[in-house]
TrEMBL record:
Pfam families, A to Z: AAA_16
Region (Disordered): 18-44
Residues in AAA+ ATPase domain copies: 93-258
InterPro entries in alphabetical order: AAA+_ATPase, AAA_16, P-loop_NTPase
TM segment ranges: none
Organism name: Sphingobium scionense
CDD domains: AAA
The protein's name in its UniProt record: AAA+ ATPase domain-containing protein
């Protein structure tokens, strides 16, 4: 009897029957099946069993939530070093900070967990996601409003916030709060493209530090944002802590998988775990996404063990979803893979190199023939040069893992849902060679 049937039967009992069974500890054999009246096809699940499956699907969503940042430290896997840098730099030394890394690496999750730690140390923490086109006033004024509302100062009511703020105005307003400690978190900082706004923000950070006002700004974005801030005020180097976010290691990936599986009441086979780790390349977003879709596939088949077939079916689903949001890159990936399996090792090297900062350096991947040059040319059309460097990176920083997922499913027509290949076995063979 599988777990769904046991849960369904338990839910189907009345409260009195459940209590009686718990009190007496009696075993009740399942009723005999009337084979003569049995239908040739499987019966649809009973309503109580549907409820049990829905409960497990809900547990999967909570255990492998790839759509929202985590807020609890216990869910932040493989980020202790980055958290230590952030705590030491901001809370202990009084610096500002810049958290930077690719999409899906967990920057916002780190910032949210850090915010909880800062709150426990007596800071008032305010968070805002930046928007394109914001000027300095629209960027900072919401934080000043929040500070005034949540930490009103003694004395007469404060004057209105100027319609056009300068960095010095902000420092004077915040200085009125005395030693009340604030942290302002600016997420999606790479959306701020106006160099004048960046220069004013850099000047604000420097003035806050010089005036010893206990207000710290934490920006969350990509590496170029750090360079632009420092370009706005060179001496800011002494007052800002850089916290780069890289891919998490294999141990952290396996811990993430195992904890999420335990929360969902499911088990992953070793091959399934290795496959996800191999393709996700240490991206927390992809680990959670692939795990969640694999679990849903297993539950669809009414299984409590997530096998390799469910993992790869989930990856196919993730690729199909991603294709809708980025059809042009997906089409180029399909075309490159469609050149034949002889080109797959080179394509895999390109995808993996792109997941490791600073990206693909010139000469890192040398095509071995004219056909390989064609595959590389197709992939290059999905890339651009890293700002301030010669290295190449995918325009869509989530794309390399989807390209890897596509490599391990052979194509028939326009879909990737047939004849999946065990990438773990292929990887082990390549290592052995």
């Amino acid at each position: 009897m599988n777990i769904f049937t046991r849960i369904a039967r338990w839910l189907g009992l009345s409260a009195g029957e459940r209590n009686a069974r718990q009190a007496k500890g009696k075993r009740h054999p399942a009723p005999m099946l009337d084979r003569a009246s049995a239908a040739p096809t499987a019966a649809p699940p009973a309503p109580a069993e549907v409820m049990a499956i829905d409960a497990m699907r809900s547990a999967v969503r909570k255990g492998f939530n790839s759509t929202q940042p985590v807020t609890a430290a216990r869910h932040l896997h493989g980020r202790q070093q980055e958290m230590d840098l952030l705590v030491e730099g901001v809370l202990d030394r009084g610096n500002h900070a810049m958290i930077f890394g690719g999409r899906g690496t967990g920057k916002t999750s780190l910032a949210r967990v850090f915010a909880n730690m800062a709150d426990n140390r007596g800071y008032l923490v305010f968070y805002m996601a930046c928007e394109p086109g914001q000027d300095f006033t629209s960027l900072i004024a919401p934080f000043l409003d929040a500070a005034r509302t949540n930490a009103p100062r003694a004395g007469p009511p404060p004057s209105a916030i100027p319609a056009c703020l300068t960095p010095r105005d902000v420092v004077e307003i915040l200085a009125d709060h005395g030693q009340r400690k604030f942290i302002f978190i600016l997420d999606e900082f790479d959306r701020v493209a106006d160099t004048d706004v960046l220069a004013e923000l850099a000047r604000l950070m420097k003035l806050l530090s010089d005036a010893a006002v206990p207000v710290h700004i934490v920006a969350v974005g990509i590496a170029s944002g750090l360079n632009q801030l420092i370009a706005g005020h060179e001496s800011l180097r002494r007052h800002i802590s850089a916290v780069p976010i890289v891919r998490i290691d294999s141990d952290a990936v396996y811990e993430l998988i195992d904890r999420g599986a335990a929360h969902a009441g499911l088990n992953f086979t070793d091959a399934a775990r290795e496959t996800i780790a191999h393709i996700a390349c240490g991206s927390p977003y992809h680990v959670r996404l692939f795990c969640a879709l694999a679990c849903f596939e297993a539950l669809r088949q009414r299984k409590t063990v997530v096998e390799l077939s469910s993992v790869l079916a989930g990856m196919v689903r993730s690729v199909d979803d991603w294709k809708i949001t980025n059809p042009s890159d997906a089409a180029l990936f399909h075309e490159a893979i469609g050149l034949g399996s002889d080109h797959w090792p080179m394509i895999e090297r390109v995808a993996r190199a792109a997941t490791i900062p600073p990206g693909i350096a010139p000469g890192d991947v040398e095509p071995q023939c004219d056909q390989a040059s064609l595959a590389m040319a197709l992939l290059t059309r999905t890339m651009h040069a890293r700002p301030g460097g010669r290295e190449m990176m995918f325009r869509d920083s989530l794309a390399p893992q989807f390209l890897l997922a596509m490599l391990f499913a052979s194509q028939h027509g326009d879909h990737l849902n047939n004849q999946v290949v065990s990438l773990v076995d292929a990887h082990r063979q390549s290592v052995a060679l």
